[in-house]
Amino acid sequence: MGKLKIKEISLRTGLSFSTVSRVLAGKSNTSQQARDKILACAREIGVAETLSNRLLINNILLFAPDRAFYARQDHFYYEVIQGVQEAIAPHDVHLHSCALQERHADIPLFLEKLNTPRAQAIILLGIDDPVVHKLAASFGKPCVLINSLDQEMALDSVSPDHRAIGFRGAHYLLEQGHHRILSLLCLRPETLVAQLEGIKSAFHHHRCVFDEEHHLLVTQNFCEKEAQEAVRGYFTACAPSQRPSVLLCGGSPLVNGAIAALKEMGLRVPQDVSLLGSGVEHPPLTALAPWLTTLHVPSRALGVEAVNLLQNRLTHPDAPVFNLRLQGKLGRHYSVAQPGAGEAESRYS
């Protein structure tokens, strides 16, 4: 931005040239009151658009479930946070974190954190508590949801397109001739219900009946051990002729649990059972299992886009609320084989 515009903002706001220059350059060490005044003036005289390459935030407060901060507990959310870090790295921005329950959150803790200088902008990662959403929307600061659903449609959000990802996975398997498809899913996050809807839609598209008894296995948590036990129990209860020909697993822990269960039962992938997994792209599941056919779900890109949405909300506070959906990508490898004889006719119809 030119010196004449900085001088004009300085004259209009009564703040020094150096203060205006620091704020518009994205520097810290300026009061929130001065920052708000300068940004409002920049929007008023129509120069806010020229600031899109500079982060006008110096502190972001990120709320997420406790497991999100540990790669071994939730690799997906951990990678999303790495994406946020990557987006702010070139700028004078500090990321502060606070663990919060997905549902039935500690509201007094949330309010306490909101009323600190660290809360210039807010990111809610995987938080599904509607009370938290309402409070964040009323706070008057930029706020973005990641992988969560705001029923009031008051907050910007970015998520994987779970419905499209579910549809793509099931559609691919049905195209290969599989119909004894068992979807192994955790539906605890509200957004993942959309993945199941996408799977059902693919069945409908192929004129196949989706029967939850034969096509769905749900875990309570994203837990490898729980997934292993669920798959083992399901296969043990099935007659060999009625076992699934393929497992469609939603998430890296469920993929790992399914692989462990199949190995424990002496079943080979893909000779005995095919496997299609979904997981983050950094590092991809295929780095650990190069043979695995995988739906790569964007993770770091979610963090980057969340920061972009915060910046857009600062420069365009009256813009419509955004609901951004990022697509996955199918990586074809060797874990999905053609179904055995008679599979094409077995549709549980």
From TrEMBL:
**The HTH lacI-type domain covers which part of the protein?**
4-58
Q: What is this protein called?
A: HTH lacI-type domain-containing protein
- Record GO terms (molecular function): DNA-binding transcription factor activity; transcription cis-regulatory region binding
Please name the source species: Chimaeribacter californicus
Domain of life of the native organism: Bacteria
Keywords attached to this entry: DNA-binding, Repressor, Transcription, Transcription regulation
Stored Gene3D superfamilies: 3.40.50.2300, lambda repressor-like DNA-binding domains
**A Pfam match:** Peripla_BP_3
